[in-house]
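In this section we walk through a basic example: taking a raw amino acid sequence and producing a predicted 3D structure, encoded as discrete structure tokens. The instruction is simple. Fold the sequence below.
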Amino acid sequence: MKPNEIFKLIQETSYNTSGKEVDWKIIVDEVDKVIRLIFQETTSKTDWITNFNFPVKIYKNQQHFFLVHRGYGKAWKSCNDEIVSAFLKAVEKFPDYKTQITGWSYGGGIAPFAAEDINFRTGKKIDEVMTFGAPRPLFGFFTKKHFKESAKKFIQYTFFYDFVTWLPFFYLRPNTKLMDKKNCWKVWRVFQTPKYHCAYGDEEYYC
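The resulting token sequence is shown next.
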């Protein structure tokens, strides 16, 4: 599927809700032979509390510690066992299929946590993580490097003038792929964030 088609799939899917209102779904694509773990953008009050729960926190006490956005870390930990278990059952059933984790906005902030967690538990990298309009859930370059290495390929589509992708300030994403680069200088478009935050389904921007 093309990136704009995946974005539309995110918008059209019916989701399960677990933990701190994390919306997710596993879709087995028997045409492309891909197992997709999808996280949705949501607008509940709980999600906005998560979005603005900025202070960094130790996420896992493994060989090293990782500093992440407290809200996203707590949201993922509230439902990670359930989601990872369901995902690994699908992988066991379709061992030859590729794996993809994708999400939009809030869901794009959760996606790297899912990839890192699955990689930590299984020792296997996710084939691809693809997000749209994702905020920045990671703090520090060491944490960014570690999370990025949990997948063979990380693509995080971002409009420069999508203000959601700027937040929280001073935090990082594992990867950023700027769209519509020729118009990045038009910074006043940040006031049109609602428009561009929903424009990832337009194929023209991926040319």
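Looking at the output, two observations stand out. The mean pLDDT is 89. The longest strand covers residues 22-29. In the next section we compare this with other chains.
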